[in-house]
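WARN retry 2 of 3 for item q-0093 after timeout on previous attempt; input resubmitted unchanged.
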Amino acid sequence: MFKGFYEVLKPGGVLGVVEHRAKADVPADDKSGYVGQAQVIALAKAAGFELAGSSEVNANPRDTKDYPGGVWTLPPSNNHPEADNARYQAIGESDRMTLRFVKGKAAK
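OK item q-0093 returned
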C-alpha cells in the first residue's frame, strides 16, 4: 500500500498514518489488529517516504494490547462479553500511533 500511496502523491505530498500501535514488531500473520510502529516506519521508508513527524495525540497508556479478541475488544467495537463492559470502557480506545510522512521533492 505504501508504494501505491507514494506513486499517487506529488513531490512534497503528505501521508498521514493512524494505526493501532503494538508493543513491538509483530509477525505478518498476527491477528491482534496491532502493528509495530517501527514496522510502519520501515515500510514507508522502503516506499520512498521520509518520516516528517509524529504525535501522541492518539496515545492511550491504559491499552495493554493483550486481549483475546485483539484490538476489537476495546471501544468502539466492544467485542467482549457484556459482563466485561465496565473494564473495557475504563481502558477506552486503543493506543494509536500518529505519523506524518512526506514524499521527497523532485530534483530540479
